[in-house]
Design goal:
Peptide_deformylase_sf, Peptide Deformylase, globular, five-stranded antiparallel beta sheet, 33% strand, 7 strands, 28% helix, alpha+beta
Length: 166
Amino acid sequence: MKIYVYEAPILRKKSENVTEFNDELRKTLDEMVETMRSAKGIGLAANQVGIDKRFFVLEIEDEIYKVVNPEIIKFGDDIVEFEEGCLSIPGIYKKVLRPDTILVRYQDENGNLIEKELNDVPSRAFQHEFDHLEGVLFIDKISPMSRNLIRKKLELMKKNSRPREF
């Protein structure tokens, strides 16, 4: 699957809910896991591979999450700073503030409803991928000066390379 990068319009669009849970969805989620692994990431949202639907995959400490129609029900009080990167913004890593604990609700690949509390890396990764489905990139959460420097760096990288595909 092709991973769309920084300026692709689909990355800025709020994704639509999934209404059908079928073999096509399950196959797409499996392909996304393989694409994420090939790219050495821990998460990948549907819009990052050109699909305008609300789902993403995560793999953290050998646990795979296939998340469909996610919601964040509650944010914890403790805010932590953590360095983030993104497969759609290659080579850029910045510290982002996020709640350390969240309560989430989502459907699995078969449509079963799951509600759970996430902490630490799973919490931050879930929030990062959830943001993708809202059309938000992690660089939107950093200072304007840092964001402008990143834009310039990405423009330079774009001029000097080919699009990434995994």
